[in-house]
Structure prediction request, 191 residues.
Amino acid sequence: MAAGKKNAARLGAYLVFCDESGFLIMPNLAKTWAPRGQTPLLRHRTRRQRVSAISAISVSPQRQRLGLYYRLYEHNIGQREVCQFLSQLLAHLRGDVVVLLDNATIHRGQRLRRLQQRNERLHVEYFPGYAPELNPDEGVWAYAKRVLANGQPDDVKTLHRAVRSTLEKLRASRVRLRGCIEHSELPLFLR
Prediction:
């Protein structure tokens, strides 16, 4: 495809911001309120079980609709999981899809190149290095970790349900999704 046609195709494309995060079964502590002199204590066993998550905020070509897509895993996310997630994303979104990723090694490699070759409507771009403030999907993880702070799941299944529930609430709130974009340091393009 010629460069002019490729750029023209992107004008009517979904814009998708993608990122990964992890949630440990060990509590994420945050400041909280308590009566004076009664510092709350949160007791836990040190365990390294986790839920790894990948998500994407999508902006429709007309910039009127926002969406949140995610997948949860009980192992680390690698190139294979990123490619599976992007393939499923393509199944949900019609037309061209421009995905913006950070420069993590799991976002580069042969698998992703093959996926792009098989799907002409998938266009991958990268944020500048060390610029998480530009990625609106970082807001998804900030929100989820804030909501889940000071929780104490008993096992990884409970943690999995809590993460899923939090992401579903975020998915249902267009105001919060818009807030993720507006609080990033991207130019405001939703107006």
Summary: Residues 1-5 have pLDDT under 50 and may be disordered. The chain has one domain: 11-23+47-182.
